[in-house]
Amino acid sequence: MTALPEIVAYLDEYLRVREVADEPNALNGLQVENGGAVGRIVAAVDASQETIDRVVRDDAAADPALLLVHHGLFWDGNVPVAGRRYRRLRALLQADVALYAAHLPLDLHPEVGNNVELARRIGLPVDGWFGAYRGADLGVHGPLSVPRDDLVARLAGELGGAPPHLIPGGPRHTTRVGIITGGAGNMIAAARDAGLDTFITGEGAHYTHFDAMEWGLNVIYAGHYATETVGVQALARHLADRFALPWEFHDHPTGL
């Protein structure tokens, strides 16, 4: 067992949650406290009812859990504790499960972040950052010389789920590839300005097809959910090693 305040203090500093600007409703950091002890870590992308219910079921016969997520509870703002807000909080509190959320602080972290971790998994050596948002560059880029179809296949193998969608606006053979996980289809111009020929993200709007084709970039949509499974797992692994705690990943894919 490890004291929850000790873990939270470490995470706050390691992820710089008080320094990294984010959407107001992200509420990075500890979102739900428990009785004060943590015996295991559970990583998940979303603090959905499905995720919480599975942790609660497991927790009935296990040590108290810290649920570590990328998308926390409060995206819908300062709303009454009723309906689904009540059901989620009641389940966490009754089972003594703590919840910690890290959104942009996890995306851009240089060691366990979604972007650097996905780059590591597909063999992309990172030598630069791009995609300014709220005062910080979110994405990573580097040299990678592969047929673009092989890169799509590599992503599919690493992430699973639905096959990535390729918008073939750039060369058939990549030379410089960038990544911003999640919903960063609006960053195609930033990828172009960074000198990339191929941009990997999770999803984008309809009009981004024409951005890619007319600006001469390959854009690969590998899934918002799928591309953001990697950071929470890397962070949970890091935390488990530091505090000698078991960890697991709960996979609840959305198909998006």
Instruction: State the total count of DSSP E strands.
Output: 13
Principal-axes geometry comes out as elongated
Instruction: Output the radius of gyration.
Output: 19 Å
- Mean pLDDT over the full residue set: 96
Tell me the distance between the termini. Answer: 36 Å
Largest sheet geometry: 6 strands, mixed
Number of helices: 10
Give the topology string: H per helix, E per strand. Answer: EHEEEHEHEHHEEHEEHEHEHHE
Helical/strand content category: alpha/beta
How do the strands line up in the largest sheet? 7-8-10-11-12-9
Share in helix = 25-40%
* Share of β-strand residues: 15-25%
Residue stretches low in confidence (pLDDT < 50, at least 5 long) are none
Strand and helix layout:
Blueprint (H helix, E strand, L loop, with lengths): L1 E2 H12 L13 E4 L4 E2 L1 E7 L2 H11 L5 E7 L11 H13 L2 E4 L2 H4 L6 H9 L5 E6 L2 E8 L4 H12 L5 E4 L7 E4 L8 H6 L4 E4 L6 H8 L2 E4 L2 H4 L1 H15 L3 E3 L7
Parallel strand pairs: 4-5, 4-13, 5-6, 10-11, 11-12
Antiparallel strand pairs: 1-3, 2-6, 7-8, 8-10, 9-12
Helix pairs in contact: 2-3, 5-10
